[in-house]
Specification:
This protein is an alpha+beta fold. The chain is built from eight helices and 18 strands. Helix 3 packs parallel to helix 5 and helix 4 packs antiparallel against helix 5.
């Protein structure tokens, strides 16, 4: 018996509906012989193979259905959705999330898009391993926190020094990568316990003029490696406690600078869906890679308030108090940081906009510049501001480009630490 292409397509669809997958597969192959780029035929073959218990072959076919589907039709959405379902059936959670992200750009309407985002989050709760990361590249006029003042002036001392060229602001590009992973060890309705890891790298590429000072890119690089455990317990009204323990190592200029152990606790109060208040405390023990005076202890207290207004705008404000004690010179300090972030629900052109303003004060009671002791120590006052843009209209696979304009100004009783800097960071972030 022979059929026209349209008759074969119609009979294949009817065979799928009646779960006659063998017939649907034969008809699908016939359609592909006539046109190897027939997206609907690839889709029929994929669904038939899945129905016959051949998931590996089905994943290949549905991928071809996605690749050959026209961009301006819902076919790409349904092919990606089917690919996600096939991956989920075989517990390939990361692959399923990948295809859900691919489907977002082709969702026929906002309801289906929101449904796929919800599916993505549900799969995230199922898989024991998760990864997240942020990457940015930022041209900066001051990659080394240098000072514009060519002289070293310490309030209270008559001596005046000359700062080296490497202490002046150096221009260049700063690249940052911050990758986190977690592995769920145990979970129930009220709590979860997991292993966490973090890798952070900051790399600097100096301009030609800055390299002439003799400073190398490696000298300004830094990195952090961290591994730990965390436990979260959910209480009443959506409130929850977090407990954490981490071991880490910091690198500066390609050399290990210190190792640390950190304990943390926080409690989040919720008075409703729109408000939350988090109070937390952290203790960190630091061991420096030096022969003597190689210990420090640090305590940090923080509070963070968040609110979402009826307009959709968001407000976040916080206060961080820190105290570090050490026998090492220039390490002991007290600090206070306050900040506020306002996010606008209404887009400005293609971008979602948020603005952060903040201030920090730090007091070092014992501070030395070479053999000189600063009378009364060192005191720094810093102001900082950031404008963050998320270019939502250019979303790709659930990721959006981001642009961040950062401004910093620090005043100090020691001229070396009076700095100003500006940078623009470009990166990508998840849209949900």
């Amino acid at each position: 018996m022979t059929f026209t292409l349209q008759e074969a397509r119609s009979r294949a669809v009817l065979a799928l509906r009646s779960q006659d997958y063998a017939l649907a597969l034969r008809l699908g192959y016939g359609l592909l012989q006539a046109d190897p780029k027939d997206s609907e035929a690839h889709y029929i073959v994929a669904v038939s193979q899945a129905g016959l218990g051949r998931p590996a072959e089905a994943r290949i076919s549905v991928r071809r259905a996605f690749q050959t589907a026209p961009k301006e039709t819902p076919k790409k959405f349904f092919a990606a959705q089917t690919a996600a379902q096939l991956a989920l059936k075989t517990k390939r959670y990361t692959s399923s999330q990948y295809w859900l992200r691919r489907s977002l750009a082709h969702a026929p309407n906002e309801r289906l898009r929101n449904q796929k985002i919800s599916d993505f989050r549900q799969i995230k709760s199922l898989k024991p391993v998760s990864f997240s990361g942020s990457f940015s590249i930022a041209p900066s006029d001051n990659v080394n926190s240098g000072t514009d003042d060519p002289y070293l002036i310490i309030d209270g001392l008559p001596a005046v020094g000359i700062l080296s060229a490497s202490s002046r602001p150096l221009s260049g590009i700063v690249a940052r990568a911050n990758v986190r992973f977690s592995y769920r060890l145990a979970q129930n309705e009220k709590s979860h316990f997991q292993l966490n890891g973090r890798v952070y790298h900051r790399e600097v590429m100096l301009s030609s003029a800055s390299k002439a000072t003799g400073v190398s890119n490696d000298e300004l690089s830094s990195a952090t490696y961290e591994l730990g455990l965390s436990h979260m317990r959910i209480g009443q009204n959506g409130s929850f406690n977090r407990y954490g323990f981490e071991l880490g190592r910091n690198y500066s200029g390609r050399s290990a600078q210190n190792d640390y152990a950190r304990l943390s606790f926080s409690h989040t109060f919720r008075s409703g869906d729109a408000d939350s208040l988090t109070l937390g405390a952290t203790y960190r023990h630091i061991r420096y890679n030096t022969a003597i005076l190689n210990r420090a202890s640090q305590i940090e207290l923080r509070g963070d308030y968040r609110r979402k207004f009826a307009s959709g705008d968001t407000l976040q404000s916080g206060l961080i108090l820190g105290q570090t004690h050490s026998e090492r010179g220039n390490v002991s300090q007290s600090s206070a940081t306050a900040y506020v972030t306002y996010g606008f629900d209404q887009k400005v052109g293609p971008a979602e906009v948020s603005v952060t303003l903040g201030a920090k004060y730090a007091d070092y009671p014992r501070f030395f510049i070479g053999f000189l002791s600063a009378p009364g120590g060192r005191q720094d006052s810093a102001l900082f501001g950031t404008i963050d843009l998320r270019i939502a209209d250019f979303e790709t696979a659930g990721f959006v480009p981001t642009v961040s304009l950062q401004l910093n100004k620090t005043s100090s009783n020691i001229s070396r630490y009076e700095t100003e800097s500006a940078s623009i960071a470009i990166g990508f972030a998840s849209s949900f």
